[in-house]
Amino acid sequence: MGTTRVLQITDSQTGLSYEIPVVDGAIRAIDLRQIKVSDDDFGLLSYDPAFLNTASCRSAITYIDGDQGILRYRGYPIEELAGQASFLDVAYLLLHGELPGKDESAGWADEITHHTFVHENVKKFIDGFHHDAHPMGILVSTIAALSTFYPEAKAVSDQARQHEQIVRLIAKMPTLAAFAYRHAMGLPYAYPDNELSYTGNFLNMMRKMSEPRYAPNPVLEQALDVLFVLHADHEQNCSTSTMRVVGSSQVDPYSAAAAAAAALFGPLHGGANEQVLRMLGEIGSVGNVPAYIERVKRGELRLMGFGHRVYKNYDPRATIIKKVADQVFEVTGRNPMLDVALELERIALADDYFIRHKLYPNVDFYSGIIYQAMGFPVAMFPVLFAIGRMPGWLAQWQEGTTDPEQKISRPRQLYVGQGLRHLDGTAQVRR
Ligand code: SDX
């Protein structure tokens, strides 16, 4: 057993010293509570708004090294998985810790395929949304609504029940997403085609018109599958942390996933891919890029699709997405917005402001350009992100339910409000 690493802390107010064990590069925040200045002192808290330097859990699912630009799912580099492992096999890897064998892969795909339908009543409340309702608003609502169709999902500690809901959520996300899109377009819902792959069936439900059977373009089907792989998990990002926090109350996974999808919708998170395309459209042409960059440097606005809390180097997913773009454009024709994006990147990466702030393109910078070239409306971009991220949310949620150290999440606060006072106007001087 190696020597235990210990943090020696001396409190200058009391002169008392403490030894705080350091394990896996961290101290337990609860160990700070022993540091007191008096017997009735609550003890020392750690204060970490936005959790910049706080580990909320132990996880074996995804590893990120932000300085090296490393992303691995269960130890496999994203560069190897993207293009070599299907999205469903990567979902299996995230959930089970190993890639499925040939038979397991076929059985898993078959199980997912046979859960793609949603209750016919789901269509009734999708029909209730305005024609211009944002599809993410519809998706968040319909994910939550699924909890009312599967009350057995409340048995969150039952492994068999967990598996049933995990299969349903992964299987039904493309159906809910496509139905939201078809509603917005005023098109009839296209039902799942169980002869198609997971991603091919999604394209079918999005695109099928009067033809007897929809045949997805194999290049676009494969490109979208790779994009889903790239979005599948990303350790404790905002939406995944939300999934864990909401799941810690032991609510069903549909309600937790709806909360995660709501978090993802934010423009600083998964909603950024939509904002990138709106930004590129606003810039309009390569010639307008320098002026826009100056506005960003003046702090007037943010360069959407740039920057990351963890990656202080190039987001490895952005590198892969740029390669996928070339394959897609061979089929769809080049998206002129790519030229604006490439010029933005070229200027930004050479500019001291972006270098000092360690701002590089993230996963959202190029993905939207591909989605637009594939014919998806901009509002659907965060929905596509959510389809890809669902297996990650579920794997992290599942890991949390079996972690003996986890319990309901309930952070403390530093109270900075009024001291005791009374309605008759008397007030006690604040301690
Ligand atoms: C995703 O966490 C994940 O893993 C998320 C994700 C995943 O897979 O789940 O990777 C997906 O959400 C990617 C990020 C998508 N969001 C965007 O592209 C929106 C634009 N980016 C930023 O808003 C920002 O970079 C964040 C939100 C991504 C990260 O923000 P941080 O780490 O909280 O950094 P910050 O906001 O404190 O900014 C630090 C400094 C600030 O300048 P100062 O006040 O110190 O002078 O950098 C500046 C910021 O103004 N800055 C930017 C900028 N991002 C940060 N300036 C211009 N443009 C930007 N994009």
Q: What would you say this structure looks like, in words?
A:
The longest helix has 27 residues, at 159-185. It contains 17 helices and five strands. The protein starts with a strand and ends in a 30-residue tail after the last helix. The protein folds into three domains: 4-47, no CATH class; 65-262 and 379-401, Citrate Synthase, domain 1 (Orthogonal Bundle), CATH 1.10.580.10; 272-373, Cytochrome P450-Terp, domain 2 (Cytochrome p450-Terp, domain 2). Helix 6 (159-185) packs antiparallel against helix 17 (381-401). The protein has helices at residues 78-81, 87-96, 102-113, 120-127, 135-149, 159-185, 198-207, 218-230, 238-247, 253-264, 272-283, 289-297, 316-332, 337-349, 352-356, 363-373, 381-401, and strands spanning 5-10, 17-22, 62-65, 70-73, 76-77. A three-stranded antiparallel β-sheet has the order 3-4-5. The chain has a two-stranded antiparallel sheet with strand order 1-2. Strand 1 (5-10) and strand 2 form a beta hairpin. The protein is mainly α. Bound molecules: s-citryldethia Coenzyme A.
Physical arrangement of strands within the biggest beta sheet: 3-4-5
* Outline type: globular
Question: What is the CATH class of the largest domain?
Answer: Mainly Alpha
Compute the number of strand runs: 5
**SS-based class:** mainly alpha
The rounded distance between the terminal residues' Cα atoms is 47 Å
Number of domains: 3
What are the segments in which pLDDT stays under 50 over at least 5 consecutive residues? none
**Main sheet properties:** 3 strands, antiparallel
- What small molecules accompany the polymer chains? s-citryldethia Coenzyme A
- CATH superfamily label of the largest domain: Citrate Synthase, domain 1
Supply Rg. 24 Å
Task: Calculate the mean pLDDT score and round it.
Answer: 95
Assign the CATH architecture of the largest domain.
Answer: Orthogonal Bundle
Query: What is the helix/strand order?
Result: EEEEEHHHHHHHHHHHHHHHHH
| Percentage beta strand | 5-15%
* Helicity, as a percent range: 40-55%
What's the helix count? 17
CATH topology of the largest domain: Citrate Synthase, domain 1
